[in-house]
Protein: FAD binding domain-containing protein
Amino acid sequence: MMEVKTVDILIIGAGPAGLALANWFRNSSINVLLVDKKPGPTRRGKAEGLKSTTNEIFDSYGIGPQIATESWRLEEIAIWGQKKDGKSGIEREQLIQDKVEELGKVRETMLQQSRVEYHMQQNLLSHRNITIQYNTQPVDVNVDESLLHEDEVYPVEVLLVKTQVHPEASSNILENSTPYTADGAAKEVEERIRARYIVGCDGAHSWLRKQLQVQLEGDLTDSVFGVVDLIPKSNFPDLRRVCYLRASTGTILLVPRSNKEVRLYIPVESGSSLSDPKELTFDRIIDAARKIMSPYTLEVGAVSWWSAYRVGQRVGSHFSRHNERAFLVGDAVHTHSPKAGQGMNTSIQDAYNLGWKLRLVLQPHHKLDSDASRRLLATYESERRPVAQDLISFDRGYLKLFAAPSSQFDTEFLQAIKFTTGLSIRYPPSCAVQLPKVVQTAEKLGPSLLKADLVPGKRLPDFQAVYQADGITTWIHKRLQATGCFRVIVFAGDLAAHQHLSTNVQKLGEYLADPENGLGQLTAGGEAAPVEVLMVHSANREKVELLELPEVFRPWSDNDGYDYWRVLADAESVHEGHGRVYERLETDPEKGRTLVVRPDGYIGAVLDVDDFEGVGKYFNELGMLSK
Amino acid sequence: MMEVKTVDILIIGAGPAGLALANWFRNSSINVLLVDKKPGPTRRGKAEGLKSTTNEIFDSYGIGPQIATESWRLEEIAIWGQKKDGKSGIEREQLIQDKVEELGKVRETMLQQSRVEYHMQQNLLSHRNITIQYNTQPVDVNVDESLLHEDEVYPVEVLLVKTQVHPEASSNILENSTPYTADGAAKEVEERIRARYIVGCDGAHSWLRKQLQVQLEGDLTDSVFGVVDLIPKSNFPDLRRVCYLRASTGTILLVPRSNKEVRLYIPVESGSSLSDPKELTFDRIIDAARKIMSPYTLEVGAVSWWSAYRVGQRVGSHFSRHNERAFLVGDAVHTHSPKAGQGMNTSIQDAYNLGWKLRLVLQPHHKLDSDASRRLLATYESERRPVAQDLISFDRGYLKLFAAPSSQFDTEFLQAIKFTTGLSIRYPPSCAVQLPKVVQTAEKLGPSLLKADLVPGKRLPDFQAVYQADGITTWIHKRLQATGCFRVIVFAGDLAAHQHLSTNVQKLGEYLADPENGLGQLTAGGEAAPVEVLMVHSANREKVELLELPEVFRPWSDNDGYDYWRVLADAESVHEGHGRVYERLETDPEKGRTLVVRPDGYIGAVLDVDDFEGVGKYFNELGMLSK
Structure:
């Protein structure tokens, strides 16, 4: 009889989505198996653009610096159009900074998918609870419906087929033991896995999606794209800027990469003789590019990758099935054109949304009961499906912006890049996004293109502050490592100048540490606590003594003394200017504010600074206080 | 008969100095052998502070980001003294920012020596011309005096003894083949090496120094230091700041490290019962620290390293011998107290000063004749010996500053940190540091504590500028990779507004590319050229077209098109503010200026922007135009 292995989570697909999901389970006891039919990590080509919101995820995984070092920054965008004087050829119409003022930092960088995968994969290596197994594909899945409402069960059963290859022929660097046949030939071995949860991160042709009978809704459009990564030898003056080129002969989106390379995206209009991807050869793509760029030259240097493909604009009917035991993430459940550089970003962000919820549900301590678990896991679909739908609506209109720039082009473009950066995402109310009662019905909740602000369901805007203890500068999303814990961030205001604020901090400190109301159990335990309490004050740093604040803001460990990095100041940094946190977050230093921030950096609740009960209510509704 | 291997350079000692020296020979055909008697890289403890000038060296070696990511930043300094009211105990007297305004960036970071060595060593791995051999010590050296004036000879002969150990017992990760005895016991094997040059980077007890009969001049002082790296459990409020603590019972220099650790330096006064390092046990160091920190508590958490040692303040009589065939670098030729955190920095900077000179002399193309070679190599001693002497003079007075802070404390302290950062270093005139004739005699050349400025012999002040081609921001020392090439940096001024400046740039471009005057041979050849020509203009970027500038500023390669990264603008960066280069360097945008910058980032010559001949004269006097 075949032995059956059990795992907590089985992830199908070790691309950006699968690896981003697996990264949530570092430093936990949750057992994760990633399988992929590929023989090893992706080597080249494919997705490339990284938005700042995705780079914040890498920061929270501790791999931000490595990825930033290798990435190519994008700073300027040039719009080129047909010459206005009726002559043939193109001319530069506009030069735009690739900048969203309120972000306060670089909005977009370029790094090829293979390197992004590499860093996420390296980050898993020392974690024995996470295994990646290449050359492995699932062939059958069953979910036992009778077990769905039970805890501590493994309702998902999957049959895997592992193609065993000679180790030297395999680039499978993470698999420890690969038996192989004597002559080194591929051999197939079956393996049966039982899992608590299964997640399909298996791309546009997702096997799991088909098994779960999830339909993709929307059009398989006629859009065919040619994509080429090459070193151009050319006298075109804007090769090192992002360029939108519009000529009578077609359009190009040109994006600079490292190593003197550029990427050219060339959409082929429907009805064209090239609208079948199979017809779109490399030479034809380059011919089309030459015609568009004329009279500038284009000679081809080294070519590192090229591809031609047809794009579908579709969203899955469901993002989860079987009572939140099976999930679909990334390309497996939505596809769209590469025009706005969204593919890899949205996949990673889907995974980031799901991961902490699974971690919270599977955490041995402070575990939610089965109702609370399902309620939380159901927010994956309610939060991420509208994002995919909005993306496709946006995608449809995106190129129109460039086709005939209007007089409001600058404003429209800025709104578009805010959208593609993810700044307009706002998750709807749920157990994890709680609105104050008064606005629960009144407020409109559609996607907003407003300035990044403190609203439940929106990402916490990143900001720069200074640690009270040592004057070192940090950005808040670098501080919010992906450990699975929630944060209560107390914007305590100018507590040196206002007695009511310092009194409040004392009371809040007591409330948050109180074992009676249940919060004390959530905040105790140092780095392993499910809730970490932080403060950002706006007082003169020299008038605040860290060790005089309530202990929840600088907990003691018998092992290594105080935690010095929970209290930040909105102050001038020694070397990097003033973060102006209160101003940017429109928070009154005389009043303060308390935020509950979810493990994924999204805002769970916005409370008055003296609304102690509000904090308790948030964790109670989530089910974390229920035992 | 014993086989004799030949190498271009034999380096004794693979610590910070030896590794920094070896890094100069990456991407060259120069053969380098590093030997060290240690069984492998340093593991812990020892030196730690990195000044910005040292971090610039890491940037030029391409390992700046990795080192910065691991380093701990220092932002604030607290001065503590005996309570003024006569009561026992200490109180905070002053809080100072660790900042030098004109640097425009972080002045000091902390990273332990073992990690610094690790990154420098990793950076050599892919370079087959550089070998590191551990478990190896030299036992005999001979320099054949009859060969000293010849080219293409190997006048240095060294007998090495290699202790062969079982590979599993060895941490020798770089040596490829270590034969060993059948029982795994250590075995000694002799090896004879002939080298063109030998460099002793073998520390305070330098073997090579003794062989070269170089005397250390100065005192072996009575200063004994206890040093401890530990996690303190303490209610002292400034544990995360650099602290100078002065109590009636003694003084402590406290420096925060990563992982919640701090380093304590505790000098023991002469005449004390503890002035013999052997008597200074860990418990005694901690007892002394407790008394000084009282009434604050100090409990000991994890201890990662501690040591006690006596400090000599001494400088070698010579830094090179045998007609510039043998050199001494770093601790091998000067020692001083750890108070100003200079040990590792000065060693690395010594090596950085010597490396490019050896590279230029050994370069197969554009090689200097033997007179020019010796003249250049002699500048190692004339440039670095005064630095070591100044350091010791400074060292003697340094703690006085803190012992009884005067009313000018702030000013004195700022001057002191400028000094320890290396900003006051100014190399004397030589073939590599050329003064305009008019000032050659008139100007005083001693170390100056003036604002960083454009003076021959001083380090090029680092500055932030924006690439013309893509708007990407860089700091100039990040741009000046250690390839061995000189740079001619043309501060072309506002060439869009002033006809005389744009005319000048055209003429200068022609002159620098002219094969007739010899400069054309130095500037041709793309990345392999011995001289790279850069421009920093102050014009409106939109009014400058890169491809309309002379080709020397954007050379073409048949392989990969134009070089887009030789022209920079003094302009507002999209995401990082304005570098204000012309203002900071006090350069008139209507006049401009031309600099010759040496491969080590020091200024070789400062010229009027139309002084074309001055550029030729510089390379001619250096001997690079002599053939």
Q: What stands out?
A: Chain B has 15 helices and 30 strands. Residues 46 and 113 of chain B are 6 Å apart (CA to CA). The mean pLDDT of chain B is 88.
